[in-house]
Amino acid sequence: MTLLVDTHSHTVASTHAYSTVQEYVVQAKLKGMQMFSLTEHGPTMPDSPHPWHFGNRHVLPRVVDGIAILRAIEANIMPADGGHDIPNGLHPFLDFAIASFHEPVFAPASKAQNTKAMIATIETGDIQIIGHPGNPNFPIDIAEVVRAAKDNNVVLEVNNSSFKGSRSGSGPHCKKVLEITDQLDWKLVFSSDAHVAYDVGNDALSMACANEVGFPMHRIVNRDAHSFTTFLAQHNKPVAVELKDWLKAL
Ligand SMILES: [Zn+2]
Ligand SMILES: [Zn+2]
In terms of residue numbers, what domain contains 193? Predict the structure, then answer.
């Protein structure tokens, strides 16, 4: 583990994931991390929690045992032309939002259609991260997407689980995302996409690929809590203010 913030994880609030918030805190602490994010699926996915799940997370402490907990969502890129499935009114409850292609929601389409939908989602201004863009089931024009992301201060994700079985065949596409983002002088976010607490903060496979490409650490927005909350503050997310004292004490 080299990054101190994990931006993507699923808890037992989704039945295809296997750990509680507390179990994530324990593992994050053991690994010397500073922060992780709860990012259950948006409501269009079959295994999304009830929408109240997202609105009630104010009951969670901001910091437990020194570990900060962010409240986010992995929304769905919607067919056919993009957009997302974050319900109206939920935005104030979210520290940030990821948007991803998922097969149960968006049937894989042509490269041109996928690219168009992804860019339209970026341009909504409601999401900060594009999840697992290296999925070979959803070919995209990576350069076009990175340019749109840069114009909108959105980052593409390098998803560690994409290198080890999820979305099989992603590896070469993730490498291309790293190379093209580097060429276009833009930033990335790295995540575990953990579905069990033991995986939180796992970025070894993503980092190995980044090292191969020579992608610079200073352009990974979640290298630590300061860099990630700075990114969120650029999107006017109040969590950056709420965690100010905790950040100072780090
Ligand atoms: Zn996903
Ligand atoms: Zn996920």
Answer: 5-248
